[in-house]
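Justification of resources, computational component.

The compute hours requested in this renewal are based largely on the per-chain cost of generating structure records like the one below. Each record pairs the submitted sequence with a full structure-token output. That output is archived, and it is also reused by downstream analysis tasks.
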Amino acid sequence: MPHATTETLAQTEQTPDHSLFVRFVAGRDVGCPVCDYSIRDLTGPTCPECGCALELRVGSPHLRTGAWVFAIVSFALALGFDGVVSIMFTAMLVLNPTQRWEPIGMVTLFFLLAASMLAGVLLLVRRRTLWARRPLRQQWAIAIAIFLIVGLLHAAVGGVFVLTVGGAKAKGPAPSAGPSSS
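The structure output for this chain reads:
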């Protein structure tokens, strides 16, 4: 058999060999991945029911995206929330710099939270192949742990915020040193 050149490989990749597909479905009870119509003994790479193009692919049971997407969304939702809150606190500082409570600490805290959530998203994106090599059960365990940690962290920060703002409001305004009317 002659060696394949880069030209023949490029031609093979551009024009798929439909005979492999036809041989694969010959005598097999296989459903169309779009409409689940039986494509047993099909003579071409198109579903007769829905008209979708069909092709053979190599897959892996480890290439499941559900847990990975769940982990990414956990970080991304928190990142969006932290970013909006940081912008709101920064706007409050800029528009009213004489405010009594300590918004600078909260702005810093939410910027740090946003940065850590961004780091989590980037880490998951960059380590996608490492994630896919893990067993599916372990992927879900990690994704659920990320969701819970992100949620608990934000609940704790929210509690600190409520205590800080609530404590400042409970103290009330400072008493005035003006003359009393007694």
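The mean pLDDT is 81. The two ends are 112 Å apart (CA to CA).
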